[in-house]
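Q: How would the structure tokens look for this protein?
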Amino acid sequence: MNAPASSKHSSPIARLGQAWQGISPRERRLVLIAGGVVLVGLVVSLLDWSHSQRTRLARSLPRAEAQLEQVQEAATEVTRLRGQAAPQRAAGPALLEAVQASAKSRGLGLALQATGDGLQIKGQASLDALVDWLAVLQRDQGLRVQRLELQGQGATAGIDAVLVKSD
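A: Here is the predicted structure in token form.
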């Protein structure tokens, strides 16, 4: 009766060793063969997984390298742009003259007048040309639209707008 009680308190490895000793040599050989088959299956599974991961990496690595190159180029451009001084923008009468010249060069029939904090624009122009021109003014002169009223008149639109410095 003491033997079963002592086997409950023995370590799992000791109990496994006792069970191993308790089976016949033929059963031991079958257990070893089954263990070998399981081991071979695990190795084959690991090799298959490794191969599929290498294939996936071989496909994704060129894309990742191209993205890295784009990011590096963008970082170089950002560094270059940060090193440049901000463009000097016209102010006062020079701003009015620059905007008038810009409108005239684009063929926009607009009347411009300086106001306290920006420019008043009135006239008629093609809507596409007007939008392009306003985008250029914002980029080059730092002017943004504060108020804009448009009234469609065929291919052109009646315009009443106020532009102010965005600085």
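The two ends are 95 Å apart (CA to CA).

The beta strands are 109-114, 118-126, 143-153, 156-165.

Upvote if useful.
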